[in-house]
Amino acid sequence: MSTAWAGGTDAILERMEQMTSLFVEETRKSMYKGESATHCEECGEEIPESRRLAIPCKYCVDCQTALEKGSK
């Protein structure tokens, strides 16, 4: 019996969720390198400090979302 399956389906799903979270985190970090902008480069609105500290960014949430939807 393979030990890879010993934990059962729940363990596999949990590991997949962990890997997905890590992938998303690394992808977000690589989207923009450098210091966060204080104001959105698209609309000019102030970017909340919590967002600027969470990830380096140059767009507000609304503009980032719109840009991502446009690129799909």
For the structure shown, list the relevant keywords.
56% helix, elongated, single chain, mainly alpha, 72 residues
Polypeptide structure, described:
This protein has 72 residues and is mainly alpha-helical. It has helices spanning 8-31, 49-54, 61-70. The protein has one domain. It contains 3 helices and no strands. It is elongated, with a radius of gyration of 18 Å.
What fraction strand? under 5%
Derived structural class: mainly alpha
Kindly, what is the distance between the CA atoms of the first and last residues, rounded to a whole number of angstroms?
A: 43 Å
The profile of the biggest β sheet is:
none
SSE order, one letter for each helix or strand = HHH
Fraction of helical residues: 55-70%
Report the mean per-residue pLDDT as an integer. 84
> Low-confidence runs (pLDDT<50, min 5 residues)?
none
The gross shape turns out to be elongated
Alpha carbon gyration radius: 18 Å
How many DSSP helices? 3
Number of domains: 1
Q: In total, how many beta strands?
A: 0
